[in-house]
Amino acid sequence: MNNFGINLTRSTDDPDRATVAMTIANASVASGKNTMVFLSSEGVRLAIKGVAEGIHEEGLQPMADLVKNYVAAGGAIWVCSPCFKKRGYSESDLIESAILVGGAKLVEFMTNDASGVSY
Amino acid sequence: MVLASFTDPVSCPIDRISHLPMETSIHADSILDLGEKGCGQLVMEVMLAMRNLAEGQTLLITAYDPAVPTDLAAWCRMTGNTLVKILPDPAGKQFLLRKGR
Question: Residue B42's closest CA among B93, B100, B6?
Fold first, then answer.
């Protein structure tokens, strides 16, 4: 089993939880797993340009570093499309490494012998 | 390259790690001091360091996070590398990894 999905529903509203999720994502991709972070609900804000740079939970790695390293190592960032649109964002607001997806894409990934965690 | 010397018996709390009764010197092809780093940050830096090594070469890691022994053992099992041994260090532990294929 090489697919690992991380559902993240938090961002600026809960920097602790959001940072831990991205730390686990780093561990997964660095361990050779095909890793996908699914940003949903408030988590979608992490895919907005400049937001990660403003999150640095005390005692944990800065969010901007976590995102940069994760993407550089081949990790995927998928953004819940309805959650994104609901908050008034447009595609030009997205960081380069993130893509908008719908539920079917997530279901396909998770039912392809994936395991995962949710924050 | 001789990187460190030890006079205490080696402590190996994890299965399938070779036990050496006494160690006087450790040879490694590369070293990595991770200090208090742990979890995702630690394995990311280990992965990047191992990329620079050829199969069979070794990396000596110094790390103080208490979860590192179990994390590194799991990381090695997943990635085809070998955790050769764990050595005590005055402030934490040192880990000798050998790169697999």
Answer: B93
